[in-house]
Amino acid sequence: MPVLKELDHGTPGARSERTVSLTIDGFAVSVPEGTSVMRAASLAGIQVPKLCATDSLDAFGSCRLCLVEVEGRAGTPASCTTPVVEGMVVATQTDRLARLRRGVMELYISDHPLDCLTCAANGDCELQDMAGAVGLREVRYGMDGANHLSAAKDESNPYFAFDPAKCIVCSRCVRACEEVQGTFALTIEGRGFSSVVSPGMGEDFLQSECVSCGACVQACPTATLIEKSVIETGQPEHSVITTCAYCGVGCSFKAEMRGEEVVRMVPYKDGGANHGHSCVKGRFAWGYTTHRDRILKPMVRERISDPWRETTWEEAIGRVADGFRRIQRENGVGAIGGITSSRCTNEETFLMQKLVRAGFGNNNIDTCARVCHSPTGYGLSTTFGTSAGTQDFDSVEHADVVLVMGANPTDAHPVFASQLKRRLRAGAKLIVIDPRQIDLVRMPHVQADFHLPLKPGTNVAMLNALAHVIVTEGLVDEEFVRARCDREAFAEWTAFVAEPRNSPEAVAPLTGVPAEAIRGAARLYATGGNGAIYYGLGVTEHTQGTTAVIAIANLAMATGNIGRRGVGVNPMRGQNNVQGSCDMGSFPHEFSGYRHVANPETRGIFEREWGLSLDPEPGLRIPNMLDAAMDGSFKGLYIQGEDIAQSDPDTRHIVAGLSAMELVVVQDLFLNETANYAHVFLPGSTFLEKDGTFINAERRIGMVRRAVRPKGGMADWEITLAIARALGCDWHYAHPSEIMDEIARTTPTFAGVSFAKLDELGSIQWPCNDAAPTGTPIMHMDHFARGMGNFVITEFFPTDERTGPRFPLLLTTGRILTQYNVGAQTRRTENSVWHAEDRLEVHPHDAEQRGIRDGDWVRLESRAGATSLRAQVTERVAPGVVYTTFHHPTTQANVVTTDYSDWATNCPEYKVTAVQISRANGPTEWQESYRAHSDASRRILAAE
Ligand code: SF4
Ligand code: SF4
Ligand code: SF4
Ligand code: FES
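Above: inputs. Below: predicted complex with iron/sulfur cluster.
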């Protein structure tokens, strides 16, 4: 069982290859050059008392508790700021040191409340520990003098409290906010005795710049900054290491528990993706797991207009199996299908696609990754040979130039953003290609060298122009291309991008970005040293999403920015397990490991493993399933953990398709929008309630471990298994580890993966097999997975979605830090204090033309539909562009988005919709009726 408190070595590890040997308290110690004496002592098992030092922060040397004696040196240096020297002889325990330390502690305690026994941090307080460690028995100064004991608390943040009476002004919080998080929200105001920690300029935490990442709370050695959940519940008594279920960063956490109750989620120091850091979602927004809206009993109904009726698992599973078999008897094997979720574990996803292929007997399986990163899969496998990002996150520490395109890391991938900001503060250059001025463009101590605010829908033109500069100005890495890439394909691509129509001057009118800026950015990326590209849904969710991914891969190959640390092509995955759900064979044409169903060899592997013959024809994608439902040939759908009625484009089409089906089965935590069209509802389980694995954006397989029992009685994998068995499949799995064993047996890139190995290594980046038994942090090191890198011509075709007199503006969409996707989880947490509604960002020029003021209700209309929301007038968007988030179902931005989609993968064009906006009096009619409807269903459920 993991310990509650990990050892804190006091200062960060040094990276030097050279070793230094010294003696501490008579013990010989060898450590890397640059290590502090404090850390060297700790590594040798000797704990020097400390307060202002912690190993997640650079040494500061303010508390003077860690004094040591060094032979041959006068005085008593602070061990946290003193680096080791060859042959050094250190004493950490002498009478003189003991006296000095007691004196320091006495001063601290004389200005600290003596309420240890009733303090929420009792037992988890370094001040208390240090008082014990230095043997403090009395405080000579009394508490009558000037002190801070009556300072007012700040409880404005929903998740943590700040009690300055307990502050020892060690500045760990200030440094954590700067060094770890990179937000610079805190300062120490005043000097000497009047020094106090302050969030912002006289503001409280909630009003300040603070983004509630929790790094300061984590760093605080006292109860000054403390989680409210600890105050309310008490100190945890055991912990379970697991993986965050929100975004594709895949942070590792310790779920600290009292019995079956989570007390707090603490970012895990040894987490490969996050190294002990977190964001507000993973750290604090887990209240949805026990929210009263959760459905905990299976429910059924005959027609979607009927009220729900609670029932037993037996009846619900029986109905699903009987219903699907009847539909297949009457309409053919292909009349049913399934949709997997990027929120569920790999094991659950693998089982879902197995159910469809082996249980249903067709390949009608698809995933919500269809609507986000399917172009990444297609684009990167075409060029490099593998459908995944090339680097680990730590690689960014070696990047010299970072190009961020169509991604907003500080909001959507905050923990990676902190790592990236650290690198930028250390001097790396930054190019941002985004229609909107995302935070990274200008924030404390970070400023983009180039921001190219292109018109939505012109990514490919922009990427071709960057390539044009690289090719025509002789910036190609000829040696890399000669050694690693297909020469013929390269020659064709070079000729294409060199054409004058791809020059920055030619595309400037299309993209709206001056040619000189494009040229400057291209030169910087090609010549600035290690160039790393990070991109997001602003690249993929377009009619040319796949073309843009290919164009990015072309750029990286042409400049030799592939196959080592600090470079690469990195798709920023949105949801926690987008990578895994694609890896596990969720697409209708592919088995796990991206192998086509038509390939007889691959099919043979699964046919032997599963003992039956499999359909060689690719199945239906989500949009095709809905079309087929409208035609009457597709009648039954099993949807696990996905809300297509809210997250997929063209809501009206989805609703019509779902309404036309005879049996829709929804498995989820809450009655989501899709459940309005379902006949059977199966209560799903949260990540805290099951074992399994997620795979993050760096191909890292992280363990999800059960901390509490499934509240509905079954983990999601157990529900799928029960359905399979009711359909007659003779499947037996006692634990998800056995499903992973099956994945390893059938999928070459996972051949070396097992739960036992994950327990041992913590996490593993695939491929993991005989050639790479501990995984592969960086791909394509010596050669591309497909052999030679493949350049592909990327002709730019403007989207058919054009502005015109009726719809003169372009709408693009994105995320905000505190909410997540359609908000099903985060809206059921205190996170709503920061983002209670979606707003429409409008440039002042466009707002003025239409008489719209900040905060006004506006009607947002496209040829697909209309919705209303409040305006936020801001220069973050360019004139002609409006922007909104899609976290609230009462807004449903997807009512407005169209049915255009990527040519290769059907990924919807969420990022470009021609719209008009006008002042409105309030919500539209459908929004009012939606509100009334959901209020009514909540009342019914509450009454039940
Ligand atoms: S709030 Fe905590 S971390 Fe910050 S200065 Fe005070 S005691 Fe140190
Ligand atoms: S919670 Fe994070 S952002 Fe807020 S003050 Fe603390 S470290 Fe800074
Ligand atoms: S960055 Fe992503 S994975 Fe990490 S805590 Fe935040 S939401 Fe969770
Ligand atoms: S721990 Fe070294 S000076 Fe505070």
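The pocket of FE2/S2 (inorganic) cluster (ligand 4) is lined by residues 50-53, 61-66, 78, 80 (CB under 6 Å).
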